[in-house]
Amino acid sequence: MPTNYIKNFDRCEFQKLYKKLSVAGAQKKPIWSGTVYVGTQPLYIECHVKWLADKIENYFFKSLPDEHITGAKELYILNDGVEKFMKRPDAWTTNVFWADDNIYKQPDLIEHFNCLFGKWENKYIISVDDDEASNFYHLGENHLLMRLFAYIFNTPDNIILHGAVVGNENNGVLITGLSGAGKSTLAAYCLSLGLKFVSDDRVALHTENGIIFANPIYTTLSLAQPIEGLKIKSCSRPNGCSKDIIVLDKSQISQNIKINAIIEPIKQDTDTPVISKTPKAPVLTRICSDYSNFSLLTRSMNPLDDYRKIANIFKDINTYSLTLSNSVRDNAIAIYNFITQGDVNV
Question: What domain range is 326 assigned to?
Fold first, then answer.
């Protein structure tokens, strides 16, 4: 349990705050409104943050401007400052997230975000202090909306994980690992070799009759260096970002890829890449640690339940390690051969 968890949260005060935020949003026409799809889940958005509103239709894989799908959850993104609605003690210097009856301060997000997050029934609100400096436009690694989506769409059969997914018509793999493990570069090279690409950072998974399917959320790819063979709509490097945020042509991104294996890259700098079967429990533990501590908007209150859910989703999936060579292209070819021919070094 986080040390700054506040047990005695005043629900009435939250209701008053939510109403203030709702009124503020209703008084202004949103810059962009419509439904986007987070994997297969519809989410209605009214966005007042210009940087994000200008990019929604290109950055989200599936967007329907001006449409409000029946039954969709709702997200209101406001650019009115938090201080306008709430006086906070000096100790609450930047981030305060309201999630149901709990309040958390997230130190790992303080560097990037200053916002208030609220949930009431199936409606969600984010209020940010500064439009241009908020980093809402940075739809890349560790973006706040990634964490929010994981929180909103957390169900027994749906999960949003930190990982890349590539494959073909019959066989897909989840490439897992912490930031810096090389997932994005590997996925991009696999795409350039002809494999189907779903995601390089956050991916929406759901199960149907025991089969795991992966679907994209964003059209973006984060790369430190350009890779030939990609159809690119735009490329930019936001302030404070060490990688280029590449917007792929949507024809380069695939849906409903079946996941048949998990591959975890291991940095060894060997001459030849090696894919070998590895015990499942340590890999799932690392996935769970990433999910429980970083992927959610709020840190998980019960990592053991998270592990049970993740273990249940992947109960019929084998796990493999990929010992990386010095050649990124050779590493991608090893994944290509694994997917298309089942090549494994035992």
Answer: 158-341
